[in-house]
From TrEMBL:
Membrane topology: Multi-pass membrane protein
Protein name: Sugar ABC transporter permease
Top-level taxon in the UniProt lineage: Bacteria
Composition bias, Basic and acidic residues: 17-27
Signal peptide: none
Compositionally biased spans, kind Polar residues: 1-11
Pfam families according to UniProt: BPD_transp_1
Keyword Secreted: no
Localisation: Cell membrane
Bilayer-spanning residue ranges: 53-79, 112-137, 146-169, 198-222, 255-277, 297-325
Keyword terms, alphabetized: Cell membrane, Membrane, Transmembrane, Transmembrane helix, Transport
Broad class of the protein's primary localization: membrane
Compositional bias ranges of the Basic residues kind: 28-39
């Protein structure tokens, strides 16, 4: 075979080999993922975090000045022997006698008992009535918005104004509630002049005002429950009562925990309602811890004991808050499972 033929054969074989292998090689190259270097985000994130803290520092400074400093200063005063003078007051030393006086004060325990009882009664009633109102609102159609607006009127009312309104209704001379009780044969009511009726009247006023708040929170939770859950329960033959206890209520437990948390914190620090209606009376029957601290600090000018009352109340509220937050995390974890 000549040299020219051999070269032609070699070239032809090479071309055929390239035709066989070329497309597959190109496909492999196309399928091979391109390697990209991940950008280094650590330094960028740290820089953005520093910028964020820089912009937030004025607001944080204001919050610390109007919130943290008064709290810390109250704690310091609660452990201090404070002496009043014409120029103000001075701290003569530190002591635990202010808290020892609280532990030996029957008035403090009476105020604590009233505050706890008032909180338990009002929160339970508001939770039950608010849940019932939310269930009704969920089933309404076009009228839901109007009824919701009317329902929110008591909640939107200023606390002092609402308390004064109920004071007019409970008045023994011209109050509508007193007149109705007397017309029904209940005798002269004197609602706010006796301990038990005064406590009940105060609880009614608080439930009337804050039940819409609980209803709005529960309604928001009801709107988040998937409809297919109710359809599955209906297919399984579950009735309305069973569906509520087995389907609706378990789904609402995190929302109810939030409502209980907010209402407990607000009810435990109640001040305006008993202050306007009864001034803590008759006697000290409706005196809350907030009113006790106000009277001790501003009326009796006992700065150390008054600060001790305020600090102990804040500690109790913080303890309740931590317990409810722990319960709320447990509810969320259980819901996730």
């Amino acid at each position: 075979m000549s040299t020219t033929s051999q070269m032609s054969t070699a070239v032809g074989g090479t071309a055929r080999t390239a035709e066989k292998t070329g497309p597959s090689d190109r496909a492999v190259r196309r399928r091979a993922p391109a390697r990209r270097r991940a950008p280094a985000r650590g330094s960028t994130d740290r820089r953005l975090a520093r910028v964020g803290w820089l912009y937030a520092s004025p607001a944080l400074t204001v919050v610390a000045a109007v919130t943290l400093f008064p709290i810390l200063f109250s704690v310091v005063l609660s452990f201090s022997e404070v002496r009043l003078s014409y120029g103000g007051f001075r701290i003569d030393g530190f002591t635990t006698g202010n808290y020892a006086a609280l532990l030996h004060s029957s008035e403090w325990f009476e105020s604590l008992a009233f505050t706890i009882g008032f909180t338990l009664v009002t929160v339970v009633l508001e939770l039950a009535l608010g849940t019932a109102a939310a269930l009704v609102l969920e089933r309404l159609g076009a009228a839901r918005g109007w009824i919701l607006a009317v329902l929110l009127l008591p909640w939107a009312m200023i606390n002092v104004v609402a308390a004064q309104l109920w004071g007019y209704l409970y008045n023994g001379t011209y109050g509508v509630v007193s007149w109705a009780i007397e017309a029904l044969g209940g005798g002269e009511p004197a609602i706010l002049g006796r301990p038990v009726p005064a406590m009940a009247a105060m609880a009614v006023a608080d439930v009337w005002k804050t039940t819409p708040f609980v209803a709005i929170i529960v309604l928001a939770g009801l709107m988040q429950i998937p409809r297919d859950v109710y359809e599955a329960a209906e297919i399984d033959g579950s009735g309305p009562w069973t569906t509520f206890w087995r389907v609706t209520l378990p789904q609402l437990r995190p929302i109810l925990a939030i409502a209980v948390l907010f209402r407990t914190l607000q009810a435990f620090g109640v001040f305006d309602l008993p202050f306007v209606l009864t001034q803590g009376g008759p006697g000290t029957a409706t005196q809350s811890l907030a009113i006790l601290g106000y009277k001790t600090l501003f009326q009796n000018l006992s700065i150390g004991p008054g600060a001790a009352v305020a600090t102990s109340t804040a500690a109790l509220v913080m303890g309740c808050c931590l317990l409810f937050l722990r319960a709320f995390r447990a509810q969320v974890a259980e819901g996730g499972r």
